[in-house]
Write a structure and sequence with these properties.
Layout: H1 2-33, H2 36-39
């Protein structure tokens, strides 16, 4: 039971890191392409 919980938690961490990377990449692309992130500040 402990190992399966650990594995599912590991998968959740990987999914969270992936979504964080995707958000970061999207923000970087927006800054490079349009720079509209700076306009909202």
């Amino acid at each position: 039971m402990f190992i399966t919980a650990l594995l599912s938690n590991h998968v959740n961490i990987i999914a969270y890191v992936k979504t964080r990377y995707i958000i970061l990449i999207n923000q970087t692309i927006r800054i490079i392409m349009g720079g509209d992130c700076f306009d909202h500040r």
